[in-house]
Amino acid sequence: EVQLVESGGGSVQPGGSLRLSCAAFGFTSSSTDMDWARQAPGKGLAWVSSFSPGGATTHYADSVKARFTISRDNDKNTLYLQMNGLETEDTAVYYCATGRYWSRGTYHFPHRGQGTQVTVSS
Fold first, then answer.
1. Residues 50-100 pLDDT 10s
2. Which residue, among 34, 4, 24, 30, has the nearest Cα to 116 in the 3D structure?
3. Cα–Cα–Cα angle for 47, 49, 52, nearest 5°?
């Protein structure tokens, strides 16, 4: 059974940093696409960043490019998201996910964890 467990969220001031972690169980995360997605208050789920199988390629949404860094530890089967220069617009529940697909004009994430809250405010 695929299980993803996120941690590391919290409250920070604008300009601050957080590092999210995602422990994967039931499958080898390095063998498949892995994503971070987020859901801001009152909005739908939005893709943030992804890691290709084997970790050869990473991608970022324009809104987080140059501020966020996705990484992984294959020995620990764990995915990370280092978030620097946080802005109030980054406030959201962040999810680790796999199995992403595109349908009806949006991404869908059928396998994701319970999420971790990130709040950026002064």
1. 988 766 789 999 999 999 999 988 899 999 999 999 999 999 999 999 989
2. 4
3. 115
Q: The tokens 């084997």 sit on which residue? A: 54
Q: How far apart are the first and last CA of the chain?
A: 40
3-state SS string over the chain?
CCEEEEECCEEECCCCCEEEEEEEECCCHHHCCEEEEEECCCCCEEEEEEECHHHCCEEECCCCCCCEEEEEECCCCEEEEEECCCCHHHCEEEEEEECCEEECCEEECCEECCCEEEEECC
Q: Which residues pair with 101 in a beta bridge?
A: 108
Of 11, 1, 32, 10, the residue nearest 97 (C-alpha): 32
Residue 15 binned pLDDT confidence (cut-offs 50, 70, 90): very high
What's the pLDDT tens digit per position in 31-43?
788 999 999 999 9
Q: How far apart are CA 100 and CA 85, in angstroms?
A: 27
